[in-house]
Write a sequence for this structure.
């Protein structure tokens, strides 16, 4: 107890001070109504994002997005330097995240057939892999070539999703494998550790929601059990029953099997939206919000250990996601209410 | 100079009073200081509130010092003429020193509360008053400890005898 209090005192005080700089509720109200990147940029004055805004960020959504992510990346690097030694998985969580973000950017560029120059500067520092590595990925001539270039990295398992990608021409499976590599690696490591129980609980929720999203999406797409095995993270007991009856039940029939878990109520709550739209996005959104809820719960229950740090990291990520949603909305000309609704629907609670 | 057993016990009481209080206050101030450094690294303008909160666990150290001085005056170590103290009175002085020293450990909890309070103030400056009140609560028991010690000293004539 005392060791936890001592080792996290500095980092917790720092992140609490940083929380004081979160975007205020009043400023969010103004941000919802922004119609251009310039308006968003002007409202970011006085926040931690402002020093990262280039001249281009005022005119171009892509530059503004990059500035926001740069601030987030710099923050991750700063926090990773002051995290206690015993909490090294949290440091890995902070750093490896940027490898996944950069790979996702490259993957989407490749999938969309964008020109190399278009997203050459989109990669961000902060991960364990070098930026030049991501730039070399852009020289790939196709998705097969792209995945081949990942040989020797933890992400070479993307090759297992290539067949499904070519079959459906849907990035979901390759992106799911990216997430799988990230969370599985972290999960394996935290399972072996005695300490940082709170972080293990958080990762557990992320692993469970990852698996549930795969199962629900696969069921919705009419896939078979054997098709989804490569995408699932092992050592996750809550999906055992789902998998044993996966091929027999339809999607609504799978939900009651989760009755004993904390996911049952939110998923049942989203069932109406799923039936209305026919899209599993409704389920995915409530599952995404579970990680934030868990982080906030840990924060409340463990104010002296890693709780405040985990709560801060997830709240900050939520702030960044909300900002990115607003910036992207300026490109598609959504109304204030539509933007607000699209973000609020995801239950990303504002800090 | 030959010292009576009672005098030696009283001096040990003074040493315990100051020694334990110094350790406890040191830990408390240290806890608050670590958190304070974290807050200031992010927002140097918060130095004022941070300093006030960091100072709170120092008071237990002052109580320990006060208790030690009272004992030392009582047995004449301060003042030039060391008195022959009966052994019973020596035990009483030792007891007074122990109660002050042990109750000073509330400074550790106070340091932890002050550290959390600094985080709260960094996040919401308007909570400064509440943060102080919460931290001061832990002080109550150190004050009780000091009061009991003074009652022991007065009752056994170490003070005013």
């Amino acid at each position: 107890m005392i060791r936890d209090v001592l080792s996290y005192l500095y980092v917790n005080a720092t992140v609490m001070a940083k929380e004081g700089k979160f975007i205020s509720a009043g400023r969010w109200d103004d941000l919802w109504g922004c119609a251009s990147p310039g308006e968003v940029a002007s409202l970011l004055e006085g926040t931690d994002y402002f020093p990262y805004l280039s001249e281009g960020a005022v005119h171009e959504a892509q530059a503004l997005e990059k500035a926001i992510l740069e601030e987030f990346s710099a923050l991750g690097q700063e926090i990773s330097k002051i995290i206690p030694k015993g909490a090294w998985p949290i440091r890995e969580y902070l750093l490896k995240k940027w490898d996944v973000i950069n790979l996702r950017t490259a993957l989407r560029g490749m999938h969309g057939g964008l020109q190399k120059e278009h997203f050459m500067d989109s990669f961000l520092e902060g991960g364990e892999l070098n930026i030049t590595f991501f730039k070399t990925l852009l020289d790939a001539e196709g998705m097969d070539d792209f995945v081949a270039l990942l040989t020797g990295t933890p992400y070479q398992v993307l090759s297992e999703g290539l067949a499904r990608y070519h079959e459906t021409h849907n990035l979901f499976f390759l992106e799911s494998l990216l997430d799988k590599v990230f969370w599985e690696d972290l999960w394996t490591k935290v399972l072996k550790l005695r300490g940082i129980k709170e972080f293990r609980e958080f990762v557990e929720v992320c692993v469970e929601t990852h698996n549930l999203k795969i199962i629900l999406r696969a069921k919705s797409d009419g896939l078979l059990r054997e098709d989804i095995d490569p995408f699932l993270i092992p050592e996750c007991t809550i999906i055992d029953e789902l998998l044993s009856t996966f091929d027999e039940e339809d999607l609504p029939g799978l939900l009651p099997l989760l009755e004993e878990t904390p996911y049952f109520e939110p998923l049942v709550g989203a069932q109406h939206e799923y039936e209305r739209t026919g899209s599993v996005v409704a389920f995915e959104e409530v599952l995404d919000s579970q990680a934030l809820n868990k982080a906030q719960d840990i924060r409340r229950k463990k104010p002296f250990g890693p709780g405040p740090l985990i709560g801060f990291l997830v709240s900050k990520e939520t702030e960044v996601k909300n900002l990115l949603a607003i910036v992207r909305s300026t490109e598609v000309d959504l109304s204030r209410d539509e933007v607000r609704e699209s973000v609020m629907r995801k239950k990303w609670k504002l800090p | 100079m030959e010292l009576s057993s009672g005098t030696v016990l009283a001096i040990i009481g003074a040493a315990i009073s100051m020694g334990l209080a110094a350790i406890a206050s040191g830990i408390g101030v240290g806890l608050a200081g670590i958190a304070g450094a974290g807050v200031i690294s992010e927002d140097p303008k918060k130095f004022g509130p941070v300093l006030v909160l960091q100072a709170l666990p120092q008071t237990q150290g002052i109580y320990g010092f006060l208790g030690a001085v009272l004992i030392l005056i009582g047995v004449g170590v301060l003042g030039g003429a060391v008195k022959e103290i009966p052994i019973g009175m020596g035990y009483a002085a030792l007891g007074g020193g122990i109660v002050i020293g042990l109750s000073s450990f509330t400074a550790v909890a106070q340091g932890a509360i002050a550290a959390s309070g600094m985080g709260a103030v960094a996040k919401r400056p308007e909570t400064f008053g509440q943060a102080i009140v919460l931290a001061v609560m832990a002080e109550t028991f150190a004050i009780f400890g000091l009061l009991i010690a003074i009652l022991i000293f007065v009752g056994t004539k170490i003070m005013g005898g």
